[in-house]
Amino acid sequence: MTVDWVCKHHNDLGKEQLYAILRLRSEVFVVEQKCVYQDIDGQDLEGDTYHLMAWTDDHLVAYLRLLDPESQGGDVIIGRVIVAPSARGTGLGHQMMDEALKQAEKQWPEVPIYLSAQAHLQGYYAGYGFVVAGEEYLEDDIPHIGMRKT
């Protein structure tokens, strides 16, 4: 699978890119995971938010967003991490984490990075240097754990 990685500040997103992002997030988080929640949370177009996208043949196959530390209390926040169902099991998630860490370091050098991981993925994120930061909690009936990389 040939993938083109694109990381854009929200001011540089095209409407087609934003539409593809929101469509994929809705497809997985709302429909597949059956989590009825307000995905469009006001942060996609705020501050210095960056959107990391993986494209294959004009299809968005993976995505995450990076929220800037100034608006988030000092940490870069990785969120909305998603791999399209059609691209799972291809190693794309690992490529995306590598890209995300590179982009975070490029935009905000030496700033700690925080993410809210589904609890069963704790070991996965630990492989990238993240350590548990806080107690496990439920979000949309799915166990989550805060993790930080310094």
Low-pLDDT residue spans: none
Broad shape? globular
Distance between the termini: 32 Å
Specify the number of helices: 3
Top-tier CATH class: Alpha Beta
What is the number of independent domains? 1
CATH superfamily: Gcn5-related N-acetyltransferase (GNAT)
Task: Give the tally of β-strands.
Answer: 8
Major sheet = 8 strands, mixed
How much of the residues is beta strand, in percent? 25-35%
| Helical content class | 25-40%
Give the helix/strand class.
alpha+beta
Keywords: Acyltransferase, Transferase
Pfam families: Acetyltransf_10
Protein name: Protein ElaA
Domain N-acetyltransferase: 8-150
Q: Please, could you describe this protein's structure?
A:
The protein has 150 residues and is α+β, with helices and mostly antiparallel strands. The protein has one domain: Gcn5-related N-acetyltransferase (GNAT) (Aminopeptidase), CATH 3.40.630.30. The chain contains three helices and eight strands. Strands 1, 2, 3, 4, 5, 6, 7 and 8 form an eight-stranded mixed β-sheet that branches. Strand 2 and strand 3 form a beta hairpin. The model has no long low-confidence stretch (mean pLDDT 94). GO terms for molecular function: acyltransferase activity, transferring groups other than amino-acyl groups. Pfam families: Acetyltransf_10 (PF13673). Keywords: Acyltransferase, Transferase. Belongs to the UPF0039 (ElaA) family. InterPro entries: Acyl_CoA_acyltransferase, GNAT_dom.
